[in-house]
Amino acid sequence: MYHTWMRFFTPSPVHHRLGLVCLGVGLQHGALPTVGPRTLDSHVAVVISTGTGWYETPDGRRTTVTAPSLLWLTPGIPHHYAPDPGTGWDEGFVGFTGPATATYTELGYIEPDRPVVPLSDATGPRAVITRIARAARRDNPLLEVETGAAVHELLVALHRARADLAPDGDPVLKALARDAFKPMSVADHATRHGMTLAELRTAVRRGAGCSPKDYLLGIRLGRAKELLAATELPVASIARRVGYDDPAYFSRLFTRRVGMPPIRFRAQESRTVPGGWSDRMPDPGDLPRV
Fold it and tell me: Does this model's pTM top 0.85?
């Protein structure tokens, strides 16, 4: 026996311009029927919370699926899968499409070449799927926007839940963030970690979806913006604090990435605070009531 609940949506063209739209959501459990072989025109993320089963690739190779796991059903790629008939499994699925899928694939959040992805914990992704299901009532005027926004959140939750990533963060990324403001090249960072440049690139791409250079640059420019907005330090001093000995190079880099020079950013965003900004994020309960 099995139980199936699902809803399907048809977002308008204007909703597609948000980048991602949700096409459907479902919650199923038990000894579900075999799916496929079939080919879809859109993406589906199938999150297996409990149980076991199998997934078969187009060339006939069968992979065992053991919960918690993610099945990526990619447009244009045939797929064929089922839970074990004796045990069944518990699954939640979300169908989605939109122009942002190309970028999420480039960043490694969607993996067409990896249809079965072991997860360390399905709790986070299933919580997002449950929220999509609750938003799926037919009288919800925010349906398309609410579920589309949740698809973005689901992709982040799935990436975070991958079993090949440490739950408290990738140690290489954490070390890079710790040393980001030191005047070191990417090659210097690789040597510091006993890695080749290729190994470092692979590790950062897997964990952050970008190159080591872009990862470090995002951290450095984020800190530079904070110093420009919250202090009156000269640009040259800020450049040195975030790892650039050449202030002119820093200014050119900042301008190219941010779209304006540091002085203009400071003029727009200056928030000078006596004693500087706090490094502690306030708890919502600590905020004064108005």
Answer: no
